[in-house]
Automatic annotation (TrEMBL):
The lineage of its organism: Eukaryota, Viridiplantae, Streptophyta, Embryophyta, Tracheophyta. The keyword Glycosyltransferase does not apply. A motif (Q motif) lies at residues 3-31. PROSITE patterns: DEAD_ATP_HELICASE (PS00039), HELICASE_ATP_BIND_1 (PS51192), HELICASE_CTER (PS51194), Q_MOTIF (PS51195). It comes from Ricinus communis (Castor bean). Pfam families: DEAD (PF00270), Helicase_C (PF00271). Belongs to the DEAD box helicase family. DDX21/DDX50 subfamily. Keywords: ATP-binding, Helicase, Hydrolase, Nucleotide-binding. Residues 236-398 form the Helicase C-terminal domain. This is Dead box ATP-dependent RNA helicase, putative. GO terms for cellular component: nucleus. GO terms for molecular function: ATP binding; hydrolase activity; mRNA binding; RNA helicase activity. Residues 34-209 form the Helicase ATP-binding domain. InterPro entries: DEAD/DEAH_box_helicase_dom, DEAD/DEAH_RhlB, DEAD_box_RNA_helicase, Helicase_ATP-bd, Helicase_C-like, P-loop_NTPase, RNA-helicase_DEAD-box_CS, RNA_helicase_DEAD_Q_motif. SMART domains: DEXDc, HELICc.
Length: 465
């Protein structure tokens, strides 16, 4: 049943802030997490980016701070995040709430890649809430700019990505410096063994909250897979951008080198593009994002790690130039773009050699997946027009039946269904390759697919568990 924020136990000052900002109803994770956090419980939250989890921990964190503030300012809440962009995004979300409160609350946002001195100055006189990347937090502690020994609440946001980026040693150092008596909030989109082990070591009898998706809040999304010979990908990408007149398309690649290389080739072909990856300075990344948001750039060519946490609305399309390495990355791409409710989502797959090329996704009414083979004697994507928006016929396997995935809303099952197509090897010569996979309520319906495609689905499902 629908609930309003007023039923969750929040203080009137916070309810006023929520009303002024214009939040309507709490999301699923907010409904579940806020009362548990207000009761003082540890929380283990399985939630995608875009589920409303920042407010789910920020609101009770602020209430705890307002209830317990006395004496000089000292650190009350520490929020650890994996990337600079996420630090800014989470920190600014908390500051937005704070700006509607009558009591002054100081929120510090600290991350590496920029000079430490302004951050040390910002921490003079203490801070109530610190949002930090682990490495820079330890640098500031080593410079005596910050003490965390009396923090009342620890939040780990995107814990899986913290470990992916190799922060486990820094996390152990930080945990050793925190007080034993504290409340812990642990959020992750996925729970591989290392993440589960970290959660078990930090949390005490946590409230477990899992939010897979809220399909009704997601836009209808068309996922279109195009198998293309690798050397022809850039020309196909150029064709798609020009044919559909995309302005502001995000292109995913596997490496920093590929980001630079593809951006350079697009620029040489008359498409304004820039690369976005971890080797760029913070200043360069900020400038590139500003240019992309303002429309000065037509394409942003990004790696997964760099693009994690970017929140950009009104994207006409997302293109996977290199397919994601795992179903996990596929899920994250959906999570990040889905949050803006205008985003296009996204693809999965094994390696480019298995599927032969890139995957483009457009938001359009309906929700079927359209795929078409490009290569051999085909022109540089010349046949790719509206007339070709039909379910993919496996031309290379002589198939009469379409292989299609219905993904009207991008929920858990629809993701797996699409992954099944991309994780499966091509049908061998002479095999029909007919059948379909689709989400039917809470069930996944698989009809007539070959064994290797079913194995692909199982592989994708295992990664998701």
């Amino acid at each position: 049943a629908d609930m309003s924020f007023s039923t969750l136990g929040l203080a009137p000052s916070l309810l006023n802030a929520i009303a002024e900002i214009g939040y309507d109803e709490p999301t699923a994770i907010q409904r579940a997490a806020i009362p548990a956090i207000l009761r003082g419980e540890d929380v283990l939250g399985a939630a995608q980016t875009g589920s409303g989890k920042t407010a789910a921990f920020a609101l009770p964190l602020l209430q705890s701070l307002l209830d317990n503030r006395d004496g000089p300012r000292q650190l009350h809440g520490l929020v650890l995040v994996p990337t600079r962009e996420l630090a800014v995004q989470v920190g600014e979300s908390i500051r937005k709430l704070v700006s509607h409160l009558s009591m002054p609350v100081k929120v510090a946002i600290v991350f590496g890649g920029v000079s430490i001195n302004p951050q040390m100055m910002a921490l003079r006189g203490g801070a109530d809430i610190v949002v930090a990347t682990p490495g820079r937090l330890l640098d500031l502690i080593d410079h005596n700019a910050l003490k965390i020994s009396r923090a009342a609440m620890l939040v780990l946001d995107e814990a899986d990505r913290l470990l992916d980026l190799g922060f486990s040693e820094e996390l152990n150092r930080i945990l050793a410096l925190l007080p034993k008596q504290r409340q812990n909030l642990f959020f992750s989109a996925t729970f591989p063994p290392a993440v589960q082990k970290l959660a078990d070591s930090i949390l005490h009898q946590p409230a477990r909250i899992e939010v897979l998706s809220e399909p009704a809040s997601k836009p209808d999304i068309v996922q279109r897979a195009i198998a293309v010979d690798v050397p022809r990908r850039t020309m196909l990408l150029k064709h798609l951008i020009q044919e559909h007149q995309w302005r502001g398309v995000m292109v995913f690649v596997a490496t920093k080198y590929a980001a630079d290389h593809v951006a350079d080739k697009l620029n040489r072909n008359g498409i304004r593009a820039a690369s976005f990856h971890g080797e760029l300075s913070q200043g360069a990344r900020t400038e590139t994002l500003t240019d992309f948001r303002s429309g000065r750039l037509q394409a942003l060519v990004a790696t997964d790690v760099a693009a994690r946490g970017i929140d950009i609305a009104r994207l006409p399309a997302v293109v996977n130039y290199d397919l994601p390495r795992s179903a996990v990355d596929y899920t994250h791409r959906i999570g990040r773009t889905g949050r803006a409710a205008r985003a296009q989502v996204l693809g999965g797959g094994q390696q480019a050699r298995d599927f032969g090329g890139g995957v483009a996704h457009q938001q359009r009414p309906g929700g079927a997946v359209f795929q078409r083979r490009i290569g051999g004697n085909a022109g540089e994507g010349a046949q790719l027009g509206a007339a070709d928006d039909r379910p993919f016929q496996r031309e290379d396997a002589g198939a009469a039946q379409p292989v299609r995935v219905v993904a009207r809303h991008v929920d858990h099952h629809a993701r797996l269904a699409f992954l099944a197509q991309l994780y499966a090897p091509h049908a061998a010569d002479g095999e029909a390759g007919e059948g379909h996979v689709h989400a039917d309520g809470d069930a996944l319906r698989v009809v007539g697919l070959q064994d290797q495609c079913l194995r692909g689905l199982e592989r994708a499902a295992r990664v998701h568990q």
